[in-house]
Amino acid sequence: WMYSNTLHSLRCVQRPQARQVIQCRTVITGKATKEGTLRYREAHPDLAFSTSAKTDLAISRLGFGGYRIGGGEEEHSHRYSLVKALCSGMNLVDSSANYTNGASEALIGDVLTSLVDHGGIQRDEVVVMAKAGIVQGKILEEVCARTEPYPEMNSLQADLLSCIHPSFLEDQITDTLKRMNLETLDFFLLHNPEHYFVTHGRSEGSVLEFYNRLRASFSHLEKEVARGRIQHYGVSSDFSRLNDVQSLSLTILLHLAETVSNSNRFSVIQFPLNIFEMGAYNVKSDASGTKTVLELAKEKGLVSIGNRPLNAFADRSILFRLAAPDHAIEPSSSVISQVKETLNYAIHLEKTYPGTDPNHPLTTSGHIPDPKHFSWAQILVNNAQSLDYYKFKEIADRQIRPELKANLEKVSRIAGLQDWSINYQRGIFSALDLWEQLLRWNRASDIKKFEDRMIAAFPDLGTLPAGLPMKALQVLMYTSVDSVLVGARSESYVDDCLRVLKHNQPTRSFDIDSFNNLQDWAKEEAKFIVSRHQDQKQETTQ
Description:
By secondary structure, the protein is of the alpha/beta class. It is 52% helix and 12% strand. The strands form four sheets. It has an eight-stranded parallel beta barrel with strand order 3-4-5-9-10-11-12-15, surrounded by six helices. Strands 6-8-7 form a three-stranded antiparallel β-sheet. A two-stranded antiparallel sheet has the order 1-2.
């Protein structure tokens, strides 16, 4: 009843009106407590929760990830999904200052305010987690507009920086609390601080400087705890990447926190966890080489939280989404040849575009679009190895096709370029369609193979919703991770997550040999995926 009532109230308020109401509301006071989260857990006795020694907070073993919520046409769907999750048994919510330019945090704040106002939940029942450290989008604009720059800002790309300096963190916490309409954040994490090594390398001096900066950040966050603005803090990173330039040592982080305070609140870690990236479970990465990240976290009473459960990096190079695309049809044997032919034709037209000749009359007149707008065929060939189906489709739908349509429309109105425009449009759009068809089938085949393999290893997975995603989440539940973040941006997705939480009971038996065999198989599949991408790149390049 409370879920339906709260959802109805949200549907009656359009976004601009909701924002005006939120600005006038009193800040939500309080924080998650042992008593409140236990009350929430008891209200959902059929679902799986975990409790860590250092926080004593009961959190749902699947949490609501806010990576891509807020803003855009689907925002209302995101709001309803979060309401359903919070009212139905998922009491961990995660976001970051840079997610959708702050819209993710604002949406969470809207929903929490509405739920607390309507009695759907109490503040002490919900664990809110936020992160800061990535500087991009609106945060980057605000940083660049400052008259006094933040110290220790690291430049990663032209539009991407990172920073964990105390003054920056203080301002980020202030902004996040405002967007979320909260008095206290339960968990506050440094967001991928290891990006420092991208700029500075990994010499002995740079490593020492990095951990000195990290200690200063921890010291500041202890002050934020004392101020009551955060309860616990931690780090979001990949702690199991041994011999990697960006690897972080959880052992050293624990030591740094102890040097800051014997009663420190360094209590939370977040890291990638999926069937391809299981280092937190199976890599002995502590200083002694005897414990995994999950084992060390459990020993120290830390809250362990997995992220990217359905977005994996196969062999750390190919982004692989663990969900099958719709309408996948097996392509004919000639598709690769057709892709090659259409790409070669499009590349030929790109090279003959008048804008590539600085002396061409149309170029000197300045009346034609820059040739960089007509280089997509060459770009696709150059990046073929890294193009997963979902990544390709997102880039094609959001950038390539709209940009091509707009610029080809301009070219079609220029005398002498109409034929070029027609031919290039046919060539490039045909290449895009054929490539998408090939990648879609590859992905669907891989997903079906993974699903069959999982069910063979763990037959009880067959009782979960059809498709790989929920089965992949259930496999992660077999580890000791406290919670896994899921981007459940639709109400049906939340329903599936609740089925996994209900399916996963602490007493369920676990076959460690089957799990390890599944891991070995996933590693071999990762090598196969990378190899296939390389083969396709070679063929299309030829």
